[in-house]
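Q: How would the structure tokens look for this protein?
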Amino acid sequence: MYYLSGNQEYANAALPRSPDLSLNMLKIVQRMQLEQSQLKTLQQKMQEQTCCIMLACAVGTTADQSDKAQQTEKLRDGFVTYLQQKQAAGIVNVNDNPTIHFTVHVFPPCDFSREFLSSRCDPTMVGMINRTPHLLVVIAPA
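A: Here is the predicted structure in token form.
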């Protein structure tokens, strides 16, 4: 995942690493409809920088790019297409931290994510992002 804006400490706290430095699995347990009434509070947190916003996309780990192709397929088929069909964002509740709980919102490419990326990123970069499966991840205190 790539950091875009907000409080990076939220990502460190909400996406804990196991001792071998790999990320622990997060499980999407709910969906949030992509409707303005549902997005209003999250948009306010994003404007106030009281969240961490990241971009998830396939990067690959091998020189021959076969790993990237496999990651791209799993991301597209397992997350992007499903969330787009449901017209929803995935919701993950993270309660591992004893002092603060987090909600992780996982957005497929949609009007909400495209508007955010267009307002924060270079147009050339936005074009490249839009040509590949990706998820906009917003981590906020619950």
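The chain has a mean pLDDT of 87.

The longest strand covers residues 134-141.

Upvote if useful.
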